[in-house]
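The records we work with from here on pair a chain with its fold. These numbers are not coordinates but entries in a learned vocabulary of local backbone shapes. To see the layout at work, look at the sequence and tokens printed below.

. . .
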Amino acid sequence: MAEGLGNSAIAERLVVTDGTVHKHTRSIFAKLDFFPTHRMDRRVAAVLHYLEDARRGR
């Protein structure tokens, strides 16, 4: 996601199905409490969250 890849490209890179990527992505969003809204792109928010944690050394 951080590289701007969609589910199909991520699935291809990880050698899994699109459905598997979709399932894991939904799980990540739920754990971060990122539910669909018209005010935010969940993929962008998840990447920003990851980068902030990485910056803090977590």
Q: What stands out?
A: Residues 18-31 form the longest helix (14 residues). The helical segments are 7-14, 18-31, 42-55. Residues 10 and 16 are 8 Å apart (CA to CA). The chain has a mean pLDDT of 89.
